[in-house]
C-alpha cells in the first residue's frame, strides 16, 4: 500500500477566497471546452499574480497604459504587442510548445505557424550559387552551402527547397524597411541531384529590437539591453520528410548568452569561417541539413 | 516535534525546466526591487499558464491581436485595455487589494486611486436639495438623503463633502457622451450642522459595457452577457476621518448576481423606495453614512 499526501491548499490569502472561482464560474454553457479551460486558467493565474504581489491600482493602470500604447504603435509593419511578449520570453516558450506538438502530431498547419512574423510565402526561387544580397554595402558576404541528406539512410536528398530570410545590417527585414528592394535578403533554393545547395547571403549582424515603445520601456525597467544575436532563418521542405524550421546563430556574437528575446538554443550555433580566394565572399558557412522521413505521404 | 513536508516541486513538464528561471535571471542589477519581484512573478505565471495549457502560436497570436486591437480602440474617452481586465475580474480584485492596503496604511495617494475612471475632481459644489440631473427624460428621479455620523460617537458630522457621480440612462458618463452637458449627473454636497445631506439624482439603470471591441469578443467567447447592474458612485470626506469611496447598487436590479465586471458586494446593495407627494421625485433612497475618525490630523 502506498501513501500519498493530498495536494496542499494555499489558504492564507488576506483576500476573499471565493472571488476567483466566482469569476471563472460566470463562463456560460455555450463556451467551447478549450475557451473554458484556457481562459479559466488565465483568470486563475492573473488573480494569483495580483494577490501574491498585492498589485495596486496605480501599478495595474500603468500596465494597462503600456498595453494600450503597444496597440496604438502596431500596424502591418510592427507588432508591439508581440514584442512585449517576446522580451518576457513568451514567444520562445510558445515556439518550443508548438514545435513539440507539431513533432507529435505531424500537423502541417501547426508546423507552418512557427515561421515567425517576417517569413513570406512568395520568396523568389533562385538558382544555386546566386546571391540574396542587394544594395547592402556594409556587410560581410557569406558563401553558405551544404548537402541535404536523409536522416535514416544518409543519402543525398534531391529537390528539397531551402527557404532563407535574414535582416539587413540595420536590423530590419525588407518589409520593415523602405530603403530595401522587394524580397531583399530572402530566397528559395533547391538541392541538386547530389543534395547540394549553395548561395550568397550576409553574415548576419546583431541588432536591437525596436525600443521606442512599451517593450523598450520594459527592458529599461528590467535593466536589460535590447539586442538580439545575429541569425539567419531557414525552412527546409521536401515531400516525404518532416519540414525543418530553424534559426541559426553566429558563434562569435556577443549576445549569444543574453538574447533579448531568449531564442538561442546551443544546437543552433554555427561558425562563419573566414575564407580567401572567393571573389564574391569573405566568409563561408557550411551547413549540412538532415531531413527525417515520414511514413506515408505528407 | 512537528513534522512538515517539503514543498512539492512540479517536475513533470514536457518542456525545458530551466527556461523560465533563465528569463527571470536576465533582469539586470539596477532594476528596482519592486520591478524585479513583480515582473519576475509575472514571467513565472505567464510561462506556467502557457505550459499548463500547451498554448499554441495560433492561440497566442490571437491574444496578441486582441491586445493590439484594445490599444487601437483606446483614447481619452475609452480605455479598452482596462475593460478587458474588468471582464476577467481583475479590476475588482485589485480594488479589493488596494482598499485593504489603504485601510492598513492610511496613505491618501492609495485611497485616491480607487476612484475609478469616471471620477472628476472638479465636480460642481451644489447646495443641498438641488438636482444633478439635466436633460434626462427617461429616468426615475430619486431623492437621495441621509445623515453623516461619527462611527464612534454616533454624533452628526457637519461639513463632510459627499461627491456623487453616475451614468445616464444610456449607460454613459457625461465625459463619454457628447449629448450630455458638462458635469451632468455629478455634484459635490456638504453635510449641514445636523449632519444632513440631500439631493436629487437618477435611480441608476443597468447598462452593457461597450461590447464592440476585444472585451465584447471575450464575453462572447465566454458565453456571457455584457451588463452591469445599476449603481451610484460616492466618495465622502471630512478632515479627521477616513475617506469612504463606494458604489451602491439597486437591490431590484436583475444583474446583481452576475455583474459583467464583478464589482457587487452584498454590503453595497440598497433599496430605492417608491414615494408619493414629492413633486420632483418618484423614488427615495435614504443612505446613512458613517465616518471612522483617524488619530491626529490627516
From TrEMBL, chains A, B:
GO terms for molecular function: catechol 1,2-dioxygenase activity; ferric iron binding. Its cofactor is Fe(3+). One of its GO terms (biological process) is catechol-containing compound metabolic process. It comes from the Eukaryota. Residues 33-100 form the Catechol dioxygenase N-terminal domain. The keyword Metal-binding applies. Gene3D superfamilies: Aromatic compound dioxygenase. Belongs to the intradiol ring-cleavage dioxygenase family. Pfam families: Dioxygenase_C, Dioxygenase_N. CDD domains: 1_2-HQD. Residues 115-293 form the Intradiol ring-cleavage dioxygenases domain. It comes from Glarea lozoyensis (strain ATCC 20868 / MF5171). Keywords: Dioxygenase, Iron, Metal-binding, Oxidoreductase. This is Aromatic compound dioxygenase.
Amino acid at each position: 500500500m502506498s501513501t500519498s499526501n493530498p495536494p496542499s491548499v494555499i489558504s492564507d490569502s488576506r483576500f476573499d477566497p471565493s472571488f476567483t472561482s466566482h469569476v471563472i464560474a460566470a463562463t456560460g454553457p455555450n463556451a467551447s471546452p478549450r475557451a473554458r479551460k484556457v481562459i479559466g486558467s488565465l483568470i486563475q493565474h492573473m488573480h494569483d499574480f495580483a494577490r501574491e504581489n498585492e498589485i495596486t491600482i496605480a501599478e495595474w493602470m500603468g500596465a494597462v497604459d503600456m498595453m494600450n500604447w503597444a496597440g496604438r504603435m502596431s500596424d502591418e509593419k510592427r507588432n508591439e504587442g508581440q514584442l512585449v511578449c517576446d522580451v518576457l520570453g513568451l514567444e520562445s516558450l510558445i515556439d518550443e510548445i508548438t514545435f513539440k506538438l507539431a513533432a507529435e502530431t505531424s500537423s502541417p498547419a501547426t508546423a507552418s505557424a512557427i515561421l515567425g512574423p517576417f517569413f513570406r510565402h512568395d520568396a523568389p526561387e533562385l538558382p544555386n550559387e546566386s546571391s540574396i544580397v542587394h544594395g547592402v554595402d556594409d556587410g560581410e558576404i557569406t558563401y553558405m552551402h551544404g548537402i541535404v541528406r536523409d536522416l535514416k539512410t544518409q543519402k543525398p536528398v534531391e529537390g528539397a527547397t531551402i527557404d532563407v530570410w535574414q535582416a539587413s545590417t540595420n536590423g530590419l527585414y525588407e518589409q520593415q524597411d523602405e530603403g530595401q528592394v522587394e524580397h531583399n535578403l530572402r530566397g528559395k533554393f533547391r538541392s541538386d541531384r547530389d543534395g547540394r545547395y549553395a548561395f550568397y547571403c550576409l553574415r548576419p549582424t546583431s541588432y536591437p529590437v525596436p525600443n521606442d515603445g512599451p517593450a523598450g520601456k520594459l527592458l529599461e525597467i528590467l535593466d536589460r539591453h535590447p539586442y538580439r544575436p545575429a541569425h539567419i532563418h531557414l525552412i527546409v521542405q521536401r515531400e516525404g520528410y518532416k519540414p525543418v524550421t530553424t534559426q541559426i546563430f553566429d558563434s562569435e556574437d556577443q549576445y549569444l548568452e543574453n538574447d533579448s528575446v531568449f531564442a538561442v538554443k546551443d544546437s543552433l550555433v554555427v561558425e562563419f569561417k573566414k575564407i580567401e580566394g572567393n571573389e564574391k565572399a569573405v566568409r563561408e558557412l557550411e551547413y549540412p541539413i538532415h531531413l527525417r522521413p515520414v511514413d506515408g505521404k505528407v
